[in-house]
Amino acid sequence: MTHSDRITAGINLIPGRFKHRLKNYDIIHFHGGDLTLPLFSYTVKKPKIFHSHGLSLDFYKRYFLSRLILKNIANLYIAVSKDTQRKFIDLGIPKNKIRLLPNGVDTKTFRPSKKKIDNLLLFVGRITYAKGLHILLESLRYLKNKIHLVVIGPPEWDFEYFREILKRIENENRKGIHKITYLSEQEPISIVKWYQKASIFVLPSLIEAFAIVNLEALACETPVIATNTGGIPEVIQQGKNGILVPPNNPIKLAEAIQYLLDNKDVRAKLGQEGRKIVEENYSSSLIANKLRRIYEEMLM
Fold first, then answer.
1. Half-sphere exposure for 246 (CA within 13 Å, toward CB)
2. Same domain (yes/no): 46, 173
3. Is 112 within a domain?
4. Where does the Glycosyltransferase subfamily 4-like N-terminal domain start and stop, copy by copy (predicted)?
């Protein structure tokens, strides 16, 4: 059943008995933006963490009840980026109740291979308007090189947008200039292989809290071209491990792609530096240790 967040304040119903199970745990750790479980567990006297992987500032500012619930459902709030941290503070959550914990990747699974395929571009993400795949497809007309673009990701609720994307892919392939392959959703082991083979990873998001796919690409020594929005610039450093472009700008995106296509040595340098940054700051073991310390803090 679909529902409007405006009517439900982001709350769905859950079975009444479920709340009693929460008493068996030492810490209750909520993930995501849904307020259902946090609200229904309000009376459970356990330390609670609200872990945001993407926060709609407009939504919470528009709806007072949702904002009130958000501000009172947890003892501690985890933000995946400084951008999300700023949004928490803007909504009235004290800074001393917020911990910064970025996403991490398994650097043993996401690792480089020996062979990159020239002119192979990769997009990984949900097929939704906010991810900006239509901007990437639009940018192809401005490229001098013939490229092969591989698109991996499932459609979301906006099937009209998904159908439009499939139509654009079909039209582009019919032109015979560029080749576009849509693989839908893939198993992780298959995605890793595409990260390893790609010359360039492109994420043209219009909005983005953090984008773990950028970390996955960098861990495979694949340079990233992404938009300068949300938490992305906290990972992608201009000219060091990737290139940042303005959102919703296919011409600037094409210029960045063409530059990396023309400069194989730059691609290699950005990819190597990207792997180093991930190993030093975003490995899953490092992030897990930081989370463990947060748990210990909660139980003191």
1. 5
2. no
3. no
4. 17-108
Strand-pair partners of 283: 105
Three-state SS sequence of 96-148: HHEEECCCCECCCCCCCCCCCCCCEEEEECCECHHHCHHHHHHHHHHCCCCCE
Domain assignment of residue 141, given as a range: 120-281
Reported as a single tens digit per residue, the pLDDT across 233-288 is: 999 999 999 999 999 999 999 999 999 999 999 999 999 999 999 999 999 999 99
Average pLDDT over residues 12-25: 67
Residue at 115 is within a domain: no
Residues 86 and 168 in one domain: no
Please tell me the pTM assigned to this model: 0.89
Same domain, 187 and 166: yes
How many domains does one find in the chain? 2
Percent of the chain with pLDDT over 90: 76
Per residue in 128-156, pLDDT (tens digit) is 999 999 999 999 999 999 999 999 999 98
Cβ 180 vs Cβ 152: under 8 Å: no
Here the tokens at position 227 are: 């938009």
Spatial distance between the Cα atoms of 118 and 51, rounded to a whole number of angstroms:
39
Residues 274 and 295 grouped into a single domain: no
Residue 8 has pLDDT above 60, yes or no: no
Pair 130, 155 in one domain? yes
